[in-house]
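User: Predict Aldehyde dehydrogenase's structure from this.
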Amino acid sequence: MATKEEENTVFDVEAANVLTKELRDVFASGKTRSYEWRISQLKSIVKMCDEHEEDIVDALRQDLSKPQLESIVYELTMVKNSCTLAIKELKHWMMPEKAKTSLTTFPSSAEIVSEPLGAVLIISAWNYPFLLSMDPLIGAIAAGNAMVLKPSEVAPATSSLLAKLLPEYLDCSSIKVVEGAVSETSALLEQKWDKIFYTGNGRVGRIVMAAAAKHLTPVVLELGGKSPVVVDSGIDIQIATRRIIVGKWGCNNGQACISPDYIITTKDCAEKLVDSLKKELEAFYGKNPLESKDLSRIVNSNHFSRLTKLLDEDKVSGKIVYGGERDEANLRIAPTILLGVPQNSLIMKEEIFGPLLPILTVSKIEDSFDIIKSGTKPLAAYLFTNNKKLKEQFLMSVSAGGVVINDTTLHLAVHSVPFGGVGESGMGSYHGKFSFDAFTHKKAVVYRSFVGDASVRYPPYTLGKLRLMKALITGNVWTILRTLLGMS
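Assistant:
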């Protein structure tokens, strides 16, 4: 039980200042730099996941009514996999990388040393509140930093559980959890950090970046955007629709940064696509999806109202071809398909982040590229086609954080590729070694001995020295020989 004094403690700028000083002192001691410390923390996270699986699943159910399978597979298992990979590869990641040197510095050797940045701040999101808290935390630990995790207050059960479990399993002098809302986040952002990692929306991303700029703090911003799905003709439409459904409604009922936001297809293909989506959605979630236990609910009443506003706009409400049912008391919205919505409607201007899926039609599939490029660069872009030339055109024409051909969202699970945005969908990336690199400074180190001290670099400067220095910098052996021999 917390004492009255603890309950009344206010986390303000002064408290945040004390906290960051404590973290900097711990980091300065060198404690977090050791391989042993990093490995012990990573193993403890795996242990925590194993011993508290039911508690984590229950917290996610309280926050989002998240189905057990989604909680275990898309949150818990992915966190454990990130730890397992880091434990296996950490020695290799920590090793200095050999680098080539040039004739200019001969004789010499060089390497790139990965050093931890210091004290870092991680601000996580509510839609995957366990995964998006722990995944960057794993990268920060693997890199050897001290850190603060600020879980999202919009997912209070998960935030409370993290605040309880992390001090029990991890080194609470180096890894701290701060709960709270805007005032606590603002107090943290007032401090000087060595890196800030933020997952969320672009509006708050701009606030984070502005706060970081005061201290010239580097940031990783994992944002979002309107992730398009382009569906070509001549494909297996059933498989395509099943993969779109699992990426849209099977990922937190559309409340995921990489969920398909809208579909573009040809007029000829649209009817078949809608029919297939209806059939598969009914097979997955039944005739009354509002009662399905396999769909998450909308996170809170504010987001329910936001999504309702998108659906009820005059130019959109008549375009619903499937779904649209709502249960405000239980914060549930059924999977909803809309056909032929205007591009100037609200639903096409902002990220949907919910179970609504508009379908736009074009005369020829290549026209979809112009629609995508007319908006901001998305976090993800998806293409379903068997046409090799169209795949090449798509990759060349569409700029996105990540691209998947003939599926959706799967790139999130591939740790050998970076996950991150571009433009307004974010900056920086993580996952696998990219998480380690996100919290690491690559320090250049050049080694020389006292042998081979050439007078050419020292005054007095002569025309001969100038010629030789120019030749050395070019690195061309024949030019150097000709200069040494006095040839023009």
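The first strand starts at residue 97 and ends at 99.
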